[in-house]
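Design request, tokens follow.
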């Protein structure tokens, strides 16, 4: 009898742990640091846990600041390797100026629908650290990024902008790339750029 109750208790604990682990796999804000320049020296700042996490929608990464993102790569055997990469939005163009630039990049880019305008975010990524030099890091402007208006609108229509150079890269540790991420947002609204991993985890960047 004691053995039976022991098995039931063990099963109950296992179920609780499984639920806890699954609950941690949602779209949480990733842990990041933001590099600040002060008196010629780089300082790393982390927001206190009592405040909104740095990189969240309510506390986005400031415009033109570099966010260092912790992530992982996986090989074919399912082994994980911690990595770090830097993301920086270096320039933003909006409205007719953005559309004209997109037209110069690709003549088939369409104008924004009524009530929306194009936003073009010039973004830089640098793969700075990895436990393995054998696995490349993938990042893509369409797959990993969306633009979010202050009203909470996430545009997901049929119109997609094509930029040159496009922000879509595969790189090994030590490499750095720069390209444009186009998106449609509501006219005149404050906008954020949301980075999202394929398996979950988000970082928000201010675009002004």
């Amino acid at each position: 009898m004691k053995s039976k109750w022991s098995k039931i208790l063990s099963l109950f604990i296992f179920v609780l742990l499984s639920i806890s682990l699954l609950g941690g796999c949602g779209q949480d804000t990733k842990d990041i640091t933001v590099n600040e320049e002060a008196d010629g020296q780089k300082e790393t700042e982390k927001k206190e846990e009592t405040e909104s996490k740095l990189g969240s929608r309510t506390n986005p990464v400031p415009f033109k600041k570099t966010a260092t993102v912790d992530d992982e790569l996986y090989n074919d055997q399912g082994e994980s390797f911690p990595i770090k990469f830097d993301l920086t939005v270096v320039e933003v163009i909006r409205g007719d100026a953005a559309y004209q630039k997109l037209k110069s990049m690709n003549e088939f880019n369409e104008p924004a629908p009524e009530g929306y305008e194009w936003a073009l975010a010039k973004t830089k990524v640098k793969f700075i650290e990895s436990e393995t030099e054998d696995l490349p890091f993938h990042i893509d402007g369409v797959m990993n990024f969306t633009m979010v208006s202050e009203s909470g609108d996430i545009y997901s229509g049929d119109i997609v902008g094509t930029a040159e150079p496009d922000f879509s890269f595969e790189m090994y540790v030590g490499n750095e790339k720069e390209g444009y991420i186009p998106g449609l947002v509501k006219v005149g609204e404050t906008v954020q750029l949301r980075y999202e991993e394929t398996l979950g985890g988000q970082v928000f960047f201010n675009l002004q």
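Comment from the thread starter after seeing the answer: thanks! Residues 1-26, 38-49 have pLDDT under 50 and may be disordered.
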